[in-house]
Amino acid sequence: MTGIEHDTGATKVAKGVTSTLGNTVGGLTNTVGGVVGATGRGLGETVGGAVGGPGKSVGKGIADVGGGVEDGAGRVAQTTKDAGEWKA
């Protein structure tokens, strides 16, 4: 025995479909997370710069929320891709 596994039949088809689906959903999740993160950073900078003083704290909070959503979406995307590739 060589220790190499070969998928055949239904298993091969299922892995192909779930891999494609996992990579697609993971990619879209990454994209949405990136857009939300960039938007949060942009809004945070705008609020902080336009209002000044106390607005800086509000702006930083907005940017932090956007960054948190981006990080979370990145983790979900990677988990989805891993599941699509049948990784544990």
UniProtKB/TrEMBL annotation:
This is Uncharacterized protein. Residues 67-88 are annotated as: Disordered.
